[in-house]
Design goal:
Elements: E1 2-7, E2 14-15, E3 20-21, H1 24-27, E4 36-45, E5 51-60, E6 64-69, E7 74-82, E8 85-89, E9 94-96, E10 102-105, E11 119-122, E12 125-127, H2 144-152, H3 174-182
Parallel strand pairs: 1-10
Antiparallel strand pairs: 1-6, 2-3, 4-5, 4-7, 7-8, 7-9, 11-12
């Protein structure tokens, strides 16, 4: 298999006070580990945009995840998807060689993502934008009704609308969405 070691931060789940993401799965009643954040999917796309492989893994509070892909060699974009985060691609093609683990760190600079499409959540820490609740590539007014419905019903547990990952859909989640909506954040994919 082709092994990829990634580091990435999801904006809404990052807690600058502890310099890590929240243990969202634990908070949402989906696990017992205090280091599991959430499941992400990473696809490898060639220079023409065709998908060559896909893998899913559990992101850790320190931003790391190790993924095992079917064996690939060559150059591919890393495209990260998450249930409430804007799909984000590596800024450039990443080289894969047989038997060699590939490492990529999105968190060190906005420029690590295609189109510099990340936000600084702490000095020198960059994150993928939270708030694309319907996964259409835009953080906009179309996402708001999903949040509003869960907020009004007092939802708690495993909900994509829990944008800060504390286990509750409430007013504390709204500022994350509102900031990105007002700034017209969209995907470059």
């Amino acid at each position: 298999s082709s092994v990829v070691n990634l580091k990435l931060i999801l904006q809404g789940y990052y807690d600058a006070d502890v310099q890590a993401m929240r243990p969202v799965m634990l908070n949402q009643g989906e696990g017992s580990s205090d280091t599991d954040v959430d499941t992400i999917t990473v696809e490898l796309h060639d220079e023409f945009g065709a998908m060559a492989a896909s893998a899913t893994g559990v992101l850790q509070t320190d931003g790391t995840v190790t993924l095992n892909f079917t064996p690939v060699t060559g150059d591919y974009y890393l495209v990260v998807s998450h249930r409430n985060t804007l799909a984000t691609s590596s800024a450039s093609l990443v080289s894969f060689a047989a038997g060699v683990a590939t490492n990529y760190d999105f968190s060190t600079a906005a420029t690590q993502a295609y189109g510099d499409n990340q936000i600084e959540v702490a000095p020198g820490v960059f994150a993928m934008y939270t708030g694309d609740l319907n996964q259409d590539g835009y953080i906009d007014a179309v996402d708001y009704p999903l949040f509003d419905s869960d907020n009004l019903s007092g939802a708690s547990g495993n909900y994509a609308t829990d944008m800060n990952g504390d286990g509750y859909v409430d007013a504390v989640d709204y500022p994350i969405f509102d900031f990105n909506n007002l700034n017209g954040v969209t995907s470059y994919l």
